[in-house]
């Protein structure tokens, strides 16, 4: 198994069930008012270690990166005041190049010669001791506030710049923004960051760093209804729909729709509904399916 020296982002569905319950989140969109959002650049993850005496650039699997010395020089210059005090840091970000396909960026990144047009988009920073020990017990919000003054306010084409980061409650639905970014080009979706999230090397499932993918939509036939639990006990909890690999349980309805369709399931069973999801699971079902609306204009559904 590949060993990562970064805290790897995971899909919302991979976050521990207990953590999701604690957050009160049924889907990744439920985190819009509690989590920071960062653009997910479609590039190559890198760690720039800087000390008073030099720099070292590593891939997320701890391979030396030889193509980006210009990035190391720039990061070192931006942190010069801290380095002069004898401090050392691990700056985390994405190596990227505007208007360039990922395959080309990856090829440039892995070369053993200089690629001075590659950029470094910074999204986090640890002390070097924290990074080498595999853990930081400082909150993400505190880490971000520490890096912000050193990487803000630069031109979009500069070798090193700050990743666009949105405050909780300021960016709408995460999936909608991620979908917009992917359509815009150059992005692979978005990343949600828990303000209180710590940093641990490896793949975390405690919800500190969550991937948000672009949405896909499918038209599914409703074949049944299911009673809810908790606050939805006694009303509709999920629509049971025909999916690609059997039945799919779909939530996301309004309270009025839940009450109406639970009182009279014939109003929705047999109808075709538009369902938004984040692709497919390893088992071939829909990932995080959410109800978007009834398709009265459709006579046939997907996966029938």
How would you describe this protein?
This protein has helices at residues 17-23, 69-78, 80-84, 102-110, 128-133, 140-151, 174-184, 255-263, and strands at 7-8, 10-11, 36-41, 44-51, 54-59, 89-96, 119-127, 135-136, 160-162, 165-166, 187-193, 199-200, 202-203, 209-212, 216-227, 236-243, 246-250, 272-277, 290-294. By secondary structure, it is an alpha+beta fold. The two termini are 38 Å apart. The chain has 8 helices and 19 strands. It has a 5-stranded mixed sheet, with helices on one face. Strands 5-4-6-7-9 form a 5-stranded mixed sheet. It is elongated, with a radius of gyration of 22 Å. Helices cover 23% and strands 33% of the residues. It has 2 domains: 7-212, D-amino Acid Aminotransferase, Chain A, domain 1 (2-Layer Sandwich), CATH 3.30.470; 216-294, Nucleic acid-binding proteins (OB fold (Dihydrolipoamide Acetyltransferase, E2P)), CATH 2.40.50. β4 and β5 form a beta hairpin.
The major pleated sheet works out as: 5 strands, mixed
Poorly predicted segments: none
Distance between the termini: 38 Å
CATH class of the largest domain: Alpha Beta
Features:
304 residues, D-amino Acid Aminotransferase, Chain A, domain 1, OB fold (Dihydrolipoamide Acetyltransferase, E2P), 2 domains, five-stranded mixed β-sheet
Summarize the structure.
The chain has 304 residues and is an alpha+beta fold. It is built from eight helices and 19 strands.
Topology:
Elements: E1 7-8, E2 10-11, H1 17-23, E3 36-41, E4 44-51, E5 54-59, H2 69-78, H3 80-84, E6 89-96, H4 102-110, E7 119-127, H5 128-133, E8 135-136, H6 140-151, E9 160-162, E10 165-166, H7 174-184, E11 187-193, E12 199-200, E13 202-203, E14 209-212, E15 216-227, E16 236-243, E17 246-250, H8 255-263, E18 272-277, E19 290-294
